[in-house]
Amino acid sequence: MDRTLLAALNEERAARRAAVVVTELATGRQRLVRESEVGGDPLADPIEKAIRSGKSGIAETGAGEVFLNAHLPPARIVAIGAVHISQALAPMAKIAGFDFEIIDPRTAFATPERFPGAVLTAEWPEDVLKARPLDAYTAVCVITHDPKIDDHPLISALKAGCFYVGALGSRKTHARRVERLIGAGIPQSSIDRIEAPIGADIGASTPGEIAVAILASVIEAFRKRKMFAERRGEKEPA
Predict the structure, then answer these.
(1) What DSSP letter does each residue of 99-123 carry, written as one string?
(2) Domain count of the chain?
(3) Tell me: the pLDDT tens digits for 136-167?
(4) Residue 180 lies in a domain
């Protein structure tokens, strides 16, 4: 791989954006296809498949075989709320292959004793997300029931195009949440992306069951996600 291509690939990696290196097996020639460029590429279908699956492999073209080397940022789940659901979700997320982080400014809840081995930050989400911004390879699960903690990361997740955004609470609770988000200038089309009540509809009632439901929704959203260019084509909140 030449230095120019490698530098471009590293730039995409640093920005947590997907890219595919296309290598012509007959000639060894290589080129980089960024996720935002896939739609206009002659190999759009196999490249999109590689990005969705995260798997590299050989593809047939009219000019011969090419090897598609997929480079995806690690998918992650950010849980807003150091609660019982997060305690159950943390080990499940790791088993499923997701990076997992918990953010909660309430130091009585966000303790290493309650979350051994987990990435845990006992600070306000707006402060944490300045240093570690959300992106298209992040799922955000808001589960504190406290608008002062929940609303900012929800707005940030919608603006960042996170592949999944879910919020805990009844439909009545969500209706009040919608009113607040509309008041904050978020369009209804963006608010409709929030899964609320959070998680797959499996009749979950215990924290462990709700964690299973959340992870099911996150996995489904990740595997069926829109490509980056499609997401950015949607109208963003003002």
Answers:
(1) EEEEE-S-TTTS-TTTSTTSEEE-S
(2) 2
(3) 999 999 999 899 999 999 999 999 999 999 99
(4) yes
